[in-house]
Amino acid sequence: MNDLTQPAGWMPLVFLALMGISMLIYVILDGYDLGVGVLLRRADDADKDTMIASIGPFWDANETWLVLGVGLLLTAFPIAHGAILTQLYLPVALMLAGLIIRGVAFDFRVKARAHHKPWWNRAFYAGSLLAAFSQGLMLGLYITGFRYDWLDLAFAVVVGLCLVAGYCLLGAGWLIMKTSGSLQRRAMYWARRSLWLTGVGVAAISVVTPMVSQRIFDKWFSLPNIILLAPIPLVTVALFVIIDRLLRRMPAMHDRGNDRWCWVPFAGTAVIFLMAFNGLAYSIFPYLVVDKIDIWQAASAPESLGVILVGAAVVLPTILGYTLYAYRVFWGKATDLHYY
């Protein structure tokens, strides 16, 4: 049992919380702009610039949270970092390739000649799709303990596809908030199409995670845990139902000019991701590699963690501050892109 009164006991918990917060913020923030990138292929040419404009001030900064989360994993938990990244080498490489492709396409599409612009739009879509699917693939492989038999690989592929749907749901919710007119109405349709495939992914992870470990199964299905934890799945199901009903009514509300509830699909989806994240974090804790490496085994020396904590105390508020400032400055409906 680790002594939580000593730095070697409580510091790994602090860094686990910081890393978890960073990754959750990344999934929600970069998730919606990856979703917008995937949805770009379904949009009319007239709407593509508005979609890009809606994420333009934010998308690059959103990826900072991924850098922070992986950086904390590397510096605070180097043993786990080596074990995880070694097992996920290929999907990580695919994710980075996707992020590079979409980054290049984002900058080049606005300066390209008219006949080249569709190719850069396709590149932005392909990069977004590749990055989103790779992240889901990594999550599926991580949950199953990096087992590469055909059943576990099939599960990872399903999680990858469902995470793409989840990001599309976030992206569509973002567009419902940030746009108006025909594009906003199409975003409502895209959100409905993505909603229940996202639900399949949440359900698949919820079913499979307790099956990979008896320890996880006992944490969820022993008394009184099963009663105390019931709000997590119940709230999640309720949110899916609420979002579905609202999306069915929103076209009629849109026709009447009622935009009052346009924030609900995005906010509700963000809470669904929060619930899923909390459930997964509870299942895996205190391990970083399921039932193999816990946070205390993986942690750096307390002296090193102390130095890293000072840096994190400066970097994390800075990133959070400029993120909030950027969203405050560029809040409101997106308009067409203009370059001078």
Automatic annotation (TrEMBL):
Domain of life: Bacteria
Cellular localisation: Cell membrane
Membrane topology: Multi-pass membrane protein
Membrane-crossing residue ranges in chain numbering: 12-32, 90-110, 122-143, 155-175, 195-217, 223-243, 263-285, 305-327
Keyword hit for Glycosyltransferase: no
Alphabetical UniProt keywords: Cell membrane, Membrane, Transmembrane, Transmembrane helix
Pfam families: Cyt_bd_oxida_II (PF02322)
Similarity section: Belongs to the cytochrome ubiquinol oxidase subunit 2 family.
Protein name per UniProt: Cytochrome d ubiquinol oxidase subunit II
Organism for this UniProt entry: Cupriavidus basilensis
